[in-house]
Amino acid sequence: MKRIAIAVSVVVLVLAVSVSAQPNQEVEKQYAFKKRMSPGQELIKLENGWNDATVKHDWAFFDQILADDYIGTDFDGNVGTKPQFLQSLKSGESVMTSSITDDMKVRIYGDAAVVTGRTTTVNEQYKGKDISGQYRWTDMWVKDYLGRWRCVAEHVSRIAQK
Fold it and tell me: Is residue 66 scored above 90 in pLDDT?
């Protein structure tokens, strides 16, 4: 009887160790995906996500990627904070139904990066005013203590119509 109890205990212990040693598959997938992407690819993905989130009014996306001390400067020279940006999206005072981003360039400086690009918007409204057009922008990104990219500053300039 003692031998059976010892054998069962050993089997249970081996099973417990093997189950706990297996990695969390979801974490492994995310890590492997992130590992395959270069920092430049990761930032391009975030910028494309930014574009999509603007059209979809996905303020939760911006809450995740904008640093708490984010500062944005728009094409009129107005400066805004992260809470102001999020409030603008939540309130519906900023509405964009179509946006195409291209000509993106990424420059990495260790745990900091600068991404530039051009966005063409169609049917963009801000506080009831049509602001559709083409824009050049510069976003500054910094890795946080967990290794995630956070946008700390943005500057947008309107491209003059010819």
Answer: yes
Write 141-147 long-range contacts (CB < 8 A, 24+).
141/43, 141/46, 141/112, 141/113, 141/114, 141/115, 142/67, 142/111, 142/112, 142/113, 143/111, 143/112, 144/67
Q: What is the pLDDT of residues 16-55, one digit of tens each?
A: 444 444 444 544 444 445 568 999 999 999 999 999 998 9
pTM of the model: 0.75
pLDDT greater than 60 at residue 139: yes
Cα separation of 50 and 62, whole Å? 7
The 3-state DSSP class for residue 108 equals strand
| Alpha-carbon distances, residue 16 vs 11, 28, 42, 142 (angstroms) | 9, 20, 37, 41
Strands (E), 1-148: 66-73, 79-81, 94-109, 112-126, 129-130, 133-143
| Structure letter (DSSP) for residue 15 | H
The closest alpha carbon to 68, from 148, 155, 159, 158, belongs to 148
**Token pair 């160790």: residue:** 17
